[in-house]
Amino acid sequence: MGHEQRLSTDLEYVIPHDPHKPGGELFLILETTFVHRSNGRLHGLTVPGSGATEYYLAPGLQYAAHPRFVIEGSYQFPVVRNAGDLALRTDRNVLLGVRLLF
């Protein structure tokens, strides 16, 4: 496998709620990921078709039930996928998470 570069972004929108009550915030999120993989090498030789350039979007929701407890989920899918025949590919991902902040 060759070198890999990644660039990720995250955009969040807070759905309005009572600002005097901490916790209970719901966020709409949109994450993006750009991945570029160069061609791999085997025994010092470049392996053609092993590189890839991909761009993913991942819309999702994040719920801050308490200022220190967050539940989140998103669905990631490819928008651009330029991958060679031998490159690893991801069709879609479901990401679920729980965060306990301390």
Structure in words:
By secondary structure, the chain is mainly β. It has one domain. Helices cover 0% and strands 66% of the residues. It has no helices and 7 strands. The strands form 2 sheets. The chain has a 5-stranded antiparallel sheet with strand order 1-2-5-6-7, with no helix packed on it. Strand 5 and strand 6 form a beta hairpin. The relative contact order is 0.23. The mean pLDDT is 86.
Strand numbers in spatial order across the main sheet: 1-2-5-6-7
Count of extended strands:
7
- Helix and strand composition category: mainly beta
Main β sheet profile: 5 strands, antiparallel
What is the helix content? under 10%
Number of domains: 1
Sum up the overall morphology in one term.
Answer: elongated
| Contiguous helical run count | 0
Mean pLDDT: 86
For the termini, the CA-CA separation is: 38 Å
Spans where pLDDT lies below 50 across 5 or more residues: none
Radius of gyration: 18 Å
Strand content: over 45%
* N-to-C SSE string, H for helix and E for strand: EEEEEEE
Provide the fold topology.
Elements: E1 4-15, E2 25-37, E3 41-42, E4 45-46, E5 52-66, E6 69-83, E7 93-100
Antiparallel strand pairs: 1-2, 2-5, 3-4, 5-6, 6-7
Short description:
The protein has 102 residues and is mostly beta strands. Helix content is 0%, strand content 66%.
Labels describing this entry:
102 residues; mainly beta; two-stranded antiparallel sheet; single chain; 66% strand
